[in-house]
TrEMBL record:
Source organism of this protein record: Homalodisca liturata
Signal peptide interval: 1-17
Pfam families: Alk_phosphatase
PANTHER family reported in the protein's UniProt record: ALKALINE PHOSPHATASE, ALKALINE PHOSPHATASE-RELATED
UniProt-recorded name of the protein: alkaline phosphatase
Key words of the record: Magnesium, Metal-binding, Signal, Zinc
GO terms for MF: alkaline phosphatase activity; metal ion binding
Positions annotated to bind Mg(2+): D87
């Protein structure tokens, strides 16, 4: 019985993978695709054809560098600092959130930005396991690692 189920599952997976295309990758403009067998037929915008050129990516990176150079460099003492703590917000988690946000907006997702990534100044800090979780905020503020 288990052997029959395994073989049947493998056959169904092979047939299903041939019928369904990935809705978020290698989609050319106005190319139709299905999201799932139960979904209706969709036509989405797909990728920007200019993304296939080197010039597009050079222009995008030049614009980013130009924007960063135009921001005012503050060298004084920080005042009125707001500290956002995102416990569990590792780099893979943030990347997954970006992709999910893009997919919600019917895009590929890799180029999406989360709201806090648009702040002029951000940082990433990692605190190793602390025996008491309520001390994590104290460790961030005091730059200590005491148990």
């Amino acid at each position: 019985m288990l052997k029959t189920f395994t073989v049947l599952s493998a056959v169904l997976a092979a047939v299903y993978s041939q019928k369904v295309r990935d809705p978020y990758h290698d989609v050319q403009p106005q190319q139709p695709f299905y999201l799932a067998p139960t979904d209706k037929f969709f036509i989405r915008g797909g990728i920007n054809p200019q993304e296939n050129t080197i010039k597009y990516w050079h222009d995008v990176s030049s614009d980013i560098v130009r924007q960063r150079l135009q921001t005012i460099q503050r060298t004084g003492v920080a005042k009125n600092v707001i500290l956002f703590l995102g416990d569990g917000m590792s780099i893979p988690t943030i990347t997954a959130a970006r992709i999910y946000l893009g997919q919600l907006n019917n895009e590929a997702g890799e180029n999406s930005k989360l709201s806090f990534e648009k702040f002029p100044y951000t940082g990433l800090s990692k605190v190793d396991m602390v025996p008491m979780l309520d001390r994590k905020e104290i460790n961030y503020l005091n730059e200590t690692k005491k148990a």
